[in-house]
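Note to self: user wants both folds in one dump. Writing first protein now.
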Amino acid sequence: MILWILTLSSLAPIALGFTTSNEDIVVTRNVYVDFVTQELNPESLVGNPNRGQYGPRHSLPALAVYALTGDKKYGEAIKSSLRFYDQWLQEEIKTQGAHFSWEGPYLCGFHIQELRKGGLVTEGDEKWIREMFIRLADNLSAWKPGDGLWRGSQHRSQGQAIARGLAAMWYPDCPKSQDWNEYFKVVWNDWWQYKDVGINDTGYFFGSFIRILCAAELMGKEEVFTDPDVQKFIWDRIIHEVTPAGAVTPYGAHGGWNSEVGSRILALELAAKHTNDGRYRWVAQRLMNYLMKNGRKLHNQHHIHATNIEMIALASVLCDDSIQPIEPDSSSKVLYRKEVLRLTNEQVEQKYPGYGGLDCNMDMSQKIMPHKVIMRGGWNPDDLYMMIEAFPRHDPLNPTAILGLMSNRSAMTMMESEKFISRENAVRIEDLSGNANYLGKDNYQGNKQLPIGYDGMEVSVKEFSDHKLASHVILNVTNYMGYKAEHEREVLFIKNRFVFVRDKTTFDDSFKCRIGPVWNSQYANYDTNWVNTYLNTFYFQGTEIYDNPRYDLLVYHSPKSDRKLVVEQRSELENARLSTQYLWEGNVTPGFSIEFNHILVPHDPRQPANELASAIKFIKDDSNLVILKVHNEWVVINPNGEEYLLPNDLPNKITTDAKVLYIAVKDGKTNDILALGAKFFRMDDNDIFKSKERKDFEQIK
């Protein structure tokens, strides 16, 4: 709803709370504050400042208003709330021997910083504040009282270190400050030496990284925002994992659809302020607009709603409206990160002697590994977007899975929140004989599920290229899903049209096998080799948190007589409960290879799926050559680079040796051409392109 109101700072048209408009608005500090005011009502703190252990969090909406307006009633309410928080803290330490308020130290730091600016901190207050910060530092444990000081880049260890580092910085005369500062430096370096945080998800990652960012803001660590490696391994991920519509595609352990959007907005606003880079502000605004348009049901899940809005409140305090938003690069790209390793308890004791432990037993190495493949049609909200898992470490161990697919502002994937194992939107292998080699062991009789921390797979990006018409990638995985098998997934992403996927699995073992690509959704109608799907509602812990505007996805498999489509309900899944697989069953032997080809076509639900399916035809499909026709568009996959002649129902006679080819026919003419890895492209016996070496050729008319 757009209203003329007397805002907290000026008379202006402001979008209040969630909006029904499809148009994006310019997001400023005022917009953040007005949104937070509508969602979490800072007046409630004035009437009831006693929030116990939640005081630092629940005071953030009031902080947003106080920092903007200077209205002292909010400042006094915040100070009262922190006093109650400190009473809770003292009682917790007395009864439990420790506390676990990891966010308390840095959130209190921001509150006190603003209260000092407003002249609301007296000399007597300073004495209490000092004692509170020292209490916070000296008694913050990781997992249980008295379990020592922990190491690692995760949220508990970083929380312990940051609490002590802040207290040591603010009160260097404290007897323990030197020891605290040394501990802080050691644990800070547990992430800084890698310029990365060792968590492959959209949940716990921000639990750790927001602590790091808040500490960097309070301690003046500009390098966290400006260091080129941090930008490469963290900030590029934070930008490019955002869809064109402005949503966050969740993966790993997460808080549901659009997971941790408030934390991502805060991170981006901080990065914009410290780098003067408008790309960060632009993405923060796109995220905020999507949230305001689509997040009405977040109220249903109190914790997820509150934690997201609270981070937006803090973003309003720390953002810089002078930074002009600049649209980021819209090309497709491979994102990278450092290797994550899960150590055994014995390995932790050996590497980190004298400490309580390594948080989550998760370590890192300097090995650079592919993280995600991002394929993007652009930054227009309706543009096609895809995210592919490329990381074979940490959970949920699902390389080549299509984590995200979005078109026309509608999501077509939703990964379950998984800490450990996930098998979604990728090729699934099952051992029907029970005697396959698994995890390197012959005749493995146990449950064939990858163990936590499995590091036996390796992923390589064999090919990647991005062009105006399409993006192309080939991912190779060894020891795929723990089997003696090598898997290759090739994706040709035709921008804002459709996606072609080729899967090839080569075995080095003998057993009876069931194998085929999986696609999970909520609703579907289907035929023998295709399934039409859509997602309607997103849930978290049994509660509806987002509606998804309907746009359908046709998953069309190249028809084979020895394969069948299986569709089943999986009650253990919360969101994409309908699991589909186009599978083959049979005996595999060393050297045996099998391929699956399918196409993903987003479309308006008013277009009948059977009519769309009738326009798709695999003209040829074998290991040497795949020719696909989709109405007036053609895709060819030619792994060996042999010369071939396209069928004669094209308007021109076309011969080429391109390894990958895309052609679009318009008005009876061969207009758009993308030939990858070609030495020549010949049309009606005329060489349109010719080279001694294999090169890429693109023509757009």
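First done. Writing the second protein, which came from a different request thread.
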Amino acid sequence: MDQLITLYHECCATYHVEPNETVVGEIEKASHGDHQTKTFNLSSLSIPEAQYTVLGKIFSRDFLFTSIHLNDCNLSNEALQAFLHGLVTNTTCKTLELKGNRIHGAGTEALAQVLRRNQTLQNLRLEWNQIGAMDSPAFSSFCDAISMNKSLIELDLRNNDISHVGGSELAAVLKRNVTLRILDLRWNNIGPVGGRALLAVCQSNSTLNEIQLTGNNVPDDIMQNINNALAKNTEKRQVHFGHSKNMAVIARQLQNVHTEKDRQITSVLQRVSIQEQAMLKANKSLADKVKKLQDALTDHKLAFNAVSAKNALLEADITVATQQYNDAQHDIKKLKIEKDQLLHQTQRDYQQEKDGLFNIQEKLQRDLNESLETQRRLSEKVHDLERKNETLQTTVHELREAITINDRDHHLKIASLDDENQRLKLKHKEDLKDHELMSTRESQRLKESYETREQNLKEQVTKLENFRTALEREVNSLKSTISTQKLNYEENFQQEKLRLKNEEEKKQHELQDRISSLITTREDLESRYGQQLLCNREFQQKINFQLVEIETLKRQIESVQTSNLSKDTEILESREKLKTDFEKRLRLIQKDIDINTELKDRIKQLENDLKDQRFNDRNTIRELETRLADIQTKLNQREQEVSRLKHDEERRLHFLRTAMLDYIGRGTKAN
């Protein structure tokens, strides 16, 4: 702490600044605190701007303060840049609060530099500033720095004038961020556009757990969808945490088993070495006793038959011991066969699980292909409806042309009849009445023909309206079928997701059961090994007892010295055989331990394969979700196009009706 105060005074001397008592008091306050979190707090205090340059130099080499609070200090851009320049290389500070400092422009750029290069800061609070004002390029730089940062967990951007453009930029960079969990954007102006962009981020980024959007004019449905996506992220995180915790417990159990095995092997080896030393001492004592007995065996030739009988009993005991040893070897072979069967069974189960997951993937691919095929058919139906609409437009255009041609012919005929009437009036006054009758009849006939044609046109218009209603019904039926197919597909997708989750839980339970079975087999092996050691000890005690009896009898027998020597050699050979057999058994036990380690490695490999398969399944599920979203957007576009075509058709029909009414009105006026 004294070093930090001396560093502060040196920096003040270098920059020709008077030391500030408030800053010195904060540094001394941190020296008297006992807790690990050291806070440097200058909130609501006004100190000269030159002091922030000195503080930046100090914090670039600080290893004490973990939290810095500079709230409501009215910092200028120059003071903020000088202070943040020192935080770029700081490796201790985890919380930075800069509330109510009207940060914008150059200050935002300085914050972006800190986020790009500082990989220690975890909590950044920037409430009541102007970081997103006027959609400045500084805010874009700030967003890019967030995408590059790998340590920030919580970010507070309340009341920072962030518009829908800024919200979209922030959502775009959050797709690349993998550490941010809490984002507070309350009381900005993000709007529906920014809300939809943040919804897309919540659906793709599984790290975000909380986003606050109160006071941003975001619709309630978007808010609800964002909350649902964040709830899914928290659920995924909890599942991942539980799985990692279970895996850690299994790893610790395997490590404990391994250490227990090593401890048992070392204890067995120590016991073997102790027994070897005891046997060497016994052999030396036996050699000394044999030398002493060579002088005492001259007076006991009469007890040869008793000694031979006892030797026969000893041979019988040796045969019994060899039979027990053979039985132990047979049990060990059975255990090896059971281990091989267990290994093959685990391999078959893994292959079956792998085939099942592959079948599930193929089924999902087939469902996706069927949905694409239905989409293609619907698009073809929409194209057919468009072609029918075009044909209707052509027929309407032809009817218009026919009406105009008939109108023009009618006017020409009327004009020609008028001319002919005038000419006949001038030439033949006496035939005027006849010509007038003729002209009236002709006009009456033309009027009747015009009325029949008008009636035919009306009938054609009614037919077109009926056809249009039929097309509307067909479009509505297509919409209903698309919605039902979409609902069915979503239900199948949810069922498939639940089934995969249940299968994963079953696989975890099966793995735990296998590990418990392996532990029980290990305990059985240990118990059998202890029983074998007890048998060996009993056999050694019998041998010692027989040796004592031989020693007592050799004092009475002189004639059987040679036979006793041969028996001693045979006993030594049997000991050597037992020793070699015991070493072979130790090697077999070591092989069993190696097999157990191989099984552990296999289990770890299976767990890694399961993790890879889960990752692939999650990727496929995400791809299916994105494809569903694309299909939904295409359906919305198609619906908009159909509605637009419907509106255009209604407008054309309205125009045709008005034209016909105008034409009929002009005809009546002309008559």
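Dump finished. Worth passing along: Strands lie at 39-41, 67-69, 95-97, 123-125, 154-156, 182-184, 210-212.
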